[in-house]
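Hello again,

I reread your note about wanting to compare the complex against the isolated chains. To keep things tidy I'm splitting this into two emails, and this first one only covers the full assembly. Below are the input lines as submitted, including protein chains and any nucleic acid or small-molecule components. They are followed by the predicted structure of everything together. The single-chain runs will come separately.
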Amino acid sequence: MIMTETDLHVLEPDPSDRTLLLEINDLRVGLRRGRTETTIVDGVSFDVDPRTRFGIVGESGSGKSMTLRAIAGLLPGGTEVLSGSIRYRGTDLVTAKPSVRRGLMGPEIAMIFQEPMTALNPVRPVGDQIAEGPRRHLGLSKKEGRALALEMMGHTGIPDPVRRVRAYPHELSGGLRQRVMIAMALACRPKLLLCDEPTTALDVTVQHQVLDMLESLCAEVGAALVFVTHDLAVVNKTCSDLAVMYAGRIVESGRTSEVLANPRHPYTRGLLDSAPDFDQPGRALVPIPGLPPSIANRPPGCAFAPRCSRAVAECDSAAPILTTSTDHRTVACFRAEASGSEISA
Amino acid sequence: MLHRLIFVPARLVQAVPVVLGVTLIVFFMSHLLPGDPALAILGDKATPESVSALRDQLGLDQPIWQQYVHFLSNIVHGDLGTSFTYQRPVTDVVLQAVPVTLTLVALALLLNIVISVPLAGLAAMKPNRTPDLIVRALNMVGQGMPQFWVGIMLILLFGVRLRWFPVGGYGDTPLQHLYYLLLPALTLAIALSPTTIRSLRSSTITVLGSDYVATARSKGLSGLPLFRRHVLRNSGIPTVSIVGVHLANLVGGSIVIEKVFAIPGLGSVMLDAIYARDFPSIQAVTLVVALLVTVASILTDVLYVVMDPRVSLGTGVRV
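Full-complex prediction:
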């Protein structure tokens, strides 16, 4: 795996802009039925600085998509934010009025979904769908909206936008549809772009192009990125910082390059060992045994303990707390791999 | 858009055997009814001679297949025979009644939309909550009430008690026609709306949970703009085909309702013709109704294609 810090110098926060863009504190998302709560996302906290790219990695059901949907206010029916706060430039989105929230969605915060086929309205031309947000939030006329749609389609690398602006989603390929999604999300020049596995549904050959385009457009617009994926290679390519989620909790976070080069949590280690690595073609893949726990039935101790090769008795009785070491890396594990933190702490 | 409608001519050609089949069935069925048309026209006190003379005049003496062939060739010439009861060309009688029934059905469809879309939307917003439960209960009640009874109740309430609407008839000016047809159309719409609401409610729930509605919300849309631009058309697509299927029932229902409200439409002509054993009129009305239903089903297909850009019918060519 290539461990270069992709364009990090470009993405360093602007020193003049010291306020945090997004500040998530002890977020809990789940189902509430009467007085019983079922937690899907359990005490997640992280910050995103302006113009940075933050990745959330985890298996299906780890709560990464739910975290993202909570930020966007698009939690599926039945689920809700149980506690915690999501502060966007100081405004708590959890307690904000729906109208305030709607005002932010588009010009401030935008979202890209995993499946570009189902995320676009099948019965409306894509140009109209791109222009819809800007027309609503920026008050553009129909003509200006069309012009902006054409411009954005050009920016996202859609060939022949003049013809395609009238196309319906089913007339476009998956890659083009995802480009339309990106054009749509960035049309209002948001400050924060939430991406839910935006390249998972695409062919590998197209994935790379779309990621490159997404990165350069975000840099141009000045948008920070929160990027949810299960694909470590994509995170490594795209994100400066990452958090690894397991069973609704963050188990490890830090600089992408450092975490992937030197994972401290056994789960992160397991993820890396189970993913193919083209730099070491001969290496055998080591799967993580077992399955993640169901949300209704999480073990009392560390949720990963039943699958962990390093687990000791302590792991089954108490849940490890996420602790930050002096090198700005956090990990929630009693048996974290040896590192600077244990030496210096 | 036009190139996606090239299935229409083919569909029209397909309709020809359907209409022919209808004429065949109805022609023979009406001859199997007990009773003699000549006797029915002349009454109980007619002499056998006069009955026989009339049978001769009406061509009822000819073999039945000759009557049918004769009938078909006349249709092609626009001649549907002479009504026994009205003593006028049947074509005139029917052509006078067609616009009345068409207006009634169109008005009923419009009212059906006006009733169903808001109620289904309301129910789908929060499934299993109070508004949804009320709408579903109304649906059940609506489905349980016979059409003619609803018509009579509406007449009693709005016609007799409140005197807002006439109790029956058709009026003289176009505006009056609409006014007179409102109650009967409402009756038909009430009968049709439970089906429409049920279909629209469930498809709206599906659409509201879809990814593209989440996308629309992520653009800051909500409420009516969201509903109008991203929900209604998508959830309406399956409903259009269901309403299209029920259109034939609607025409059937209008026969009874026209009688209840004394409206001079196809239904009234049909019922009178059946009572009088007026064969030419029965045949003509059935033929026209079959034609209307066929055209309506083609129009349903057209609407389906117009609403859903993904659909292309009958050509086998994906555009």
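For quick reference: Chain A is about 35% helix and 20% strand.

B.
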